[in-house]
Design brief:
The chain is α/β, with parallel strands linked by helices and about 170 residues long. It has a single domain, classed as NAD(P)-binding Rossmann-like Domain (Rossmann fold, 3-Layer(aba) Sandwich). Helix content is about 35%, strand content about 25%. Strands 2-1-7 form a three-stranded antiparallel β-sheet. β1 and β2 form a beta hairpin. The longest helix has 16 residues. The relative contact order is 0.25.
Length: about 170
């Protein structure tokens, strides 16, 4: 649901390296949003984990953040070494995220299933997910002056792409 961006010096070449790790982004069409809207075709109710919190992030916002960091890293006088975290501004559980997705889907004319909040223990998964995966983004915002858009804006962008609610 976020990005970790590192700006480092290459000892061998004395150049700047830009590394990134990205998770659960909103992008037209994002996997989470598409999966949620596709599931409505075959089900009238969904059970969604409500004890794992994160910050879903627009892929467009991450692209803007990465390009800003890359431009700054390219600046010869820049001394912005380090690791920076960037994520969406809204904290939400998977259940809360699903509610927002379906609220927007209903606004677009789709039917929403009934949602039930469940614990992680009730959801069979091979991978253990952290209960709280919120990154501290203050350093990034302070250094680069970029504020992510709200989760609702990112969702509207996904739906506006026209890929999600096709008949």
């Amino acid at each position: 649901m976020a990005a970790t961006i590192s700006v480092r010096k290459s000892r061998r070449h004395m150049t700047r390296l830009l590394n990134g790790r990205f998770e659960e982004m909103l992008s037209p069409p994002t996997r989470a949003v598409r999966n949620a809207t596709v599931m409505t075709i075959s089900t009238t109710s969904l059970r969604i984990v409500d004890d794992q919190t994160g910050c879903p992030t627009s892929a467009a916002d991450i692209a803007t953040a990465v390009m800003t960091v890359a431009k700054e890293a390219e600046n010869k006088g820049s001394d912005l070494w380090g690791t920076y975290h960037f994520s969406g501004s809204d904290r939400v559980t998977w259940y809360g995220f699903a509610k927002l997705i379906f609220e927007e889907a209903v606004r677009q004319g789709a039917k929403a299933p009934s949602l039930s909040a469940i614990s992680s223990a009730e959801y069979p998964s091979r991978a253990t997910r952290p209960a709280y995966s919120i990154l501290d983004t203050r350093k990034f915002r302070r250094t680069f002056g970029i504020q992510p858009r709200s989760l609702r804006e990112g969702l509207r962008e996904c739906f506006a792409s026209g890929h999600l609610l096709q008949s």
